[in-house]
Automatic annotation (TrEMBL):
Protein's cellular compartments: Membrane
TM region positions: 137-156, 168-188, 226-245, 266-286, 368-393, 461-488
Cited InterPro entries: Transmembrane_161A/B
Family, similarity comment: Belongs to the TMEM161 family.
UniProt region (Disordered), positions on chain: 55-77
Superkingdom of origin: Eukaryota
Source organism of the structure: Megalops atlanticus (Tarpon)
Keywords for the protein's UniProt record, in alphabetical order: Glycoprotein, Membrane, Signal, Transmembrane, Transmembrane helix
Protein name per its UniProtKB record: Transmembrane protein 161A
Signal peptide from the UniProt entry: 1-28
Membrane topology: Multi-pass membrane protein
Length: 495
């Protein structure tokens, strides 16, 4: 197995460029600061007093005594003043003070370079027969999935540290709901949901037993099918809790984006298609609806084949990637709809009676902008999870992008070939270079042996089940939470 190959060189080069170019050229900064997003500035106290028709009050001794000898009484203005917020483009200096901006910038930049490495790897595999090499692009995809989950966990931990406790209850409720749904999904037979989990785990356990016997150990895996499914259900509950607030936020930004583009029917159609795209992702793995129906579509008394069963897996990959690209293309509309919440809130308080503190107006307008990167991560992270799970499914599951009939195959279990240690040489000037070269070759041989043993245990059958189920489950969690968010914002908030 060639370990020190072209892929590793390109991977190291991409990591070096990402580290050096991040302070100077960042796609994450460009996404927020390219001039297409507009934030709203909070009004000053002088502007609020001018709109209220009075001058700035000066603190008196009586006010100071009433407030304990400290700060003066806060300025209040009528709620129905003619307040219009000033819109300004988001610039780099504004973005640097946003919450979780560093986490956002690092994740998005890593995703861009991971996609570049993956595209190079796919082109390399098309041009060269590299079946014995380690797929570096797939490793970048797995790392991206891990970093997206870690970022969502960081955001959820922020909600758990909230003093109010309402956010914590929402995450726990969605976690328990996801646990129940996952337990129902995992008992469905493969004839209806064709993830391939059961064949994948059976193959994994057989390979582990074979590897243990090859190493001279009499050992069997003490894991039952019920234990595996319970463990998967717990992981699914954790992912469901992570995707609770991203789904609720998606519902709010979707409704606001549709309302914001009321005079643009094409954009509205794309927004609705993007919002309902998880439904199509779910249907793609329901065998009677997707594979069986398209392979034997009823047409009167006869049946026609719309998509051959042998090419259905490739079509499914293309459809999921296209849906993810559609949702990524509509990012700006959702982010601008979120930023417009400031003006929407101002218009709402104008219809109310009474007075409001000026500091409350300033705090509310500023808070919307401060959480821009949080909302961006909540919108992008689920899409990236589905996208890179699909890319990893293609590479590690031994699928093809070509829409031609594929020959299903399983990577054979390769026995690890032991390598002999290099002979010891005497220390000397002429032999130092040869000794170092022999050490490097021995290290590469050991790494190659370890990777060969790993590939013998983790076969494409296992990866097909894991990443197909991960992509499907992320889409299911986001659909459940976003539909609940639609119900909450449309009905509960109005009543």
């Amino acid at each position: 197995m060639a370990l020190m190959g072209v892929q590793l060189v390109v991977s190291l080069l991409a990591a070096s460029i990402m580290q050096r170019m991040a302070p100077h050229c960042s796609f994450a900064r460009w996404l927020l600061c390219n001039g297409s997003l507009f934030r709203f500035k909070h009004p000053s106290e002088g502007e609020l007093c001018a709109l209220a028709g009075k001058q700035m009050p000066k603190p008196s001794r009586r006010d100071r005594r009433q407030n304990g000898g400290g700060e003066p009484k806060p300025l209040t203005v009528p709620k129905d003043i003619d307040l219009h917020l000033q819109a300004t483009p988001v610039n780099v200096l504004d973005a640097l003070v946003l919450r979780f901006f560093l986490e956002y910038q690092w994740l998005i930049d890593f995703v861009v370079y991971a996609m570049g490495v993956y595209l190079f790897t796919e082109g390399y595999y098309c041009a060269v027969d590299a079946s014995k090499e380690v797929n570096i692009g797939a490793i970048w995809c797995v790392l991206t999935i891990f970093f997206c989950l870690r970022t969502l966990y960081t955001l959820m931990s922020h909600y758990f540290r909230s003093e109010e406790g309402g956010e914590r209850s929402v995450c726990l409720a969605f976690g328990f709901l996801s646990l129940l749904v996952a337990m129902l999904v995992l008992v469905v037979r493969e004839d209806y949901l064709e993830f391939g989990l059961e064949p994948g785990f059976a193959n994994l356990f057989n390979n582990l037993e074979g590897f243990a016997k090859q190493q001279g150990y009499e050992w069997s895996v003490p894991v039952t099918k019920l234990t595996v499914k319970l463990g998967l259900a717990v992981i699914c509950a954790f992912i469901g809790a992570l995707l609770a607030f991203p789904g609720l936020r998606l519902a709010q930004t979707h409704l606001d984006a549709v309302q914001m583009n009321a005079d643009r029917p094409i954009i509205q159609v794309l927004l609705h298609a993007s919002f309902l795209s998880p439904v199509l992702v779910l249907m793609l793995w329901v065998k009677p609806i997707a594979r069986d129906f398209l392979a034997n579509a009823p047409m009167g008394k006869t049946t026609i084949t719309l998509i051959p069963s042998s090419t259905f897996s490739s079509v499914r990959l293309w459809v999921v990637v296209a849906l993810c690209v559609l949702r990524l293309a509509l990012t700006r509309y959702h982010l601008q709809a979120y930023l417009n919440l400031s003006q929407k809130w101002v218009e709402q308080i104008k219809r109310e009676a009474g007075r409001i503190a000026a500091i409350d107006i300033q705090r509310k307008v500023t808070r919307v902008f401060c959480y821009l990167t949080v909302v961006t991560l909540q919108y992008l992270a689920p899409i990236l999870l589905i996208l890179f799970s699909t890319l990893a499914l293609k590479s590690l599951g031994d699928f093809s992008w070509g829409l031609v009939p594929e020959v299903p195959g399983v990577t054979p279990v390769e026995a690890a070939i032991p390598t002999e240690a290099p002979p010891l040489t005497a220390l000397g000037e002429d032999e130092d270079g040869d000794s170092m070269e022999d050490d490097v070759q021995a290290a590469v041989a050991q790494l190659s042996e370890a990777m060969a043993a790993l590939r013998a245990v983790l076969t494409p059958i296992f990866f097909r089940g894991v990443f197909a189920f991960l992509a499907w489950w992320v889409a299911a969690c986001q659909l459940i939470s976003s539909l609940f968010g639609i119900y909450f914002h449309q009905y509960l908030m109005q009543n």
